[in-house]
Amino acid sequence: QLINKSLNDFDNFDRKMMQRCLELARHALGCTSPNPMVGAVIVKNGEIIGEGFHPKAGEPHAEVFALRDAGENARGATVYVNLEPCNHYGRTPPCSEALIAAGVSKVVVGMVDPNPLVAAGGIARLRSAGIEVVVGVEEEACQKLNEGFIHRIRYKKPLGILKYAMTLDGKIATSKGHSNWITNTAARKRVHKLRVGCDAVIVGGNTVRQDNPYLTSHQAQVHNPLRVVMSRNLNLPSSANLWDIREAPTLVLTEVGANSEFKEFLQNKGVEVVELTPLTPSVAMAFLYERGFCSVLWECGGILAANAITQGAVQKVLAFIAPKIIGGSDAPTPVGELGFAAMTEALQLERVTVKLVDSDLLIEGYLPQL
Ligand code: AOF
Ligand code: ZN
Questions:
Q1: CA of 355 to the centre of ligand 2 (A)
Q2: Which residues, chain by chain, have CB under 5 Å from ion ligand 2?
Q3: What pairing do the DSSP bridges indicate for beta strands 272-275 and 250-254?
Q4: Cα 111 to Cα 120: distance, rounded to the nearest angstrom
Q5: Among the options 23, 47, 51, 63, which is catalytic?
Q6: Which numbered ligand comes closest to the C-alpha of 31?
Q7: Which residues bind substrate (predicted)?
Q8: I want to staple 294 with a disulfide (CB 3.0 to 4.6 A). Which of 33, 60, 171, 228 is the partner?
């Protein structure tokens, strides 16, 4: 049945379908690296006749699941997908060819695939087969969902996200080192959710000694990031929550020549130990890139955070600010020495957003690319 729709209605419908793609894609939050999160919806006569998402690298792509779901009905239909259909033989065959073979008549794409193996080749292939292709619906939201994947492809390293929680007077713990809790329950829940979408969470030895954190997403049946500890000398407590790997795996990064007895102790607990020389934030990030990671969350103290920033291992900052004052001239702060003397040297965050999480503030922004 033909319904009279204005051009704007069509746009709204396209946007709604793309949002559905993103919702489907998010079912695999944290599980797809080094691949992106992708969802696909197939529509005919204004109705959804097939849906799918990419569950994990090595498995079929979103379009393939959606085509299977729609079956023969896909002929003449419109396909929505948040990332350009691929056009290469990777772990799986090209989606462009699958879409052509299924006889779809139109493809609506959220964003071009930055992967040089694809890079608009999928769009060109579809068009050369006479399929109408629309690009850029809900583009910003599509890019945000896969910002880690995009960064990984573009810079050949994972996206580094620095997250910290501080009091209104800028402290991350009292001068005695006590920090449970600075932020409210809602803000802490938000951090747990944030971890679901990251491939790794990194802390230094100090955080393990002071806070004894879990660094998990604290929810059953969701993705937990790899928990990474950076420790040059392995001067770490023998009982720590991170050494219990039943909920999530732990990796300790250290240097050659570190305490071999403790190294063995960790390995016996099932904790992976890797020696990197020199052990620096940028070397750690290069190692995690090789592992196929797209996004890495720095949940470390100020000294490691300052090093990570200096070495270009941080691109995005999430700062939770609680309306509490604890004072203390020796109380630690979120970022240690950066060597700046003048305000003109300050790192100015871009694309800043501010949210209220109950009574805590969340300021989010991006560091200018070095
Ligand atoms: C799509 N749909 O659902 C995904 C795409 O090794 P492969 O075969 O899995 O290919 C991985 C690349 O394919 C990945 O780097 C990205 O460029 C694209 N991902 N493409 O058409 C999908 N996940
Ligand atoms: Zn594909």
A1: 35
A2: 61, 86, 95
A3: parallel
A4: 9
A5: 63
A6: 1
A7: 179, 195, 215, 299
A8: 33
Query: Is 63 assigned a catalytic role?
Result: yes
Query: Any known ligand binding at 215?
Result: yes
Q: By the 8 A CB rule, do 318 and 195 touch?
A: no
Sheet architecture: strand order including 47-53: 47-53, 39-44, 78-83, 106-111, 132-135
Give the residue, out of 35, 111, 126, with the most ligand 1 atoms within 8 A of its beta carbon, to mutate for a pocket test: 35
Are the CB atoms for 209 and 231 separated by under 8 Å? no
**Ligand 1, atom 22, residue with closest C-alpha:** 61
Q: Does an H or E element contain 64, and which?
A: helix 62-70
Quote the ipTM score: 0.93
Tokens encoding 50: 């097939």
What is the predicted pLDDT for the residue at 6? Answer: 52
Ligand nearest to the backbone CA of 115: 1
299 labeled binding residue: yes
Structure tokens at 137: 């619906």
Cβ atoms 42, 70 nearer than 8 A = yes
CA of 99 to the centre of ligand 2 (A): 10
Q: What is the whole-number distance in angstroms between the Cα of residue 219 and the centre of ligand 1?
A: 28
What per-residue string of b and e applies to 324-336 under the rule 16 or more CB within 10 Å gives b?
Answer: bebeeeebbbbbe
- If you search the block for the tokens 């009905």, which residue do you land on? 73
Query: Do strands 250-254 and 226-230 pair parallel, antiparallel, or not at all (unpaired)?
Result: parallel
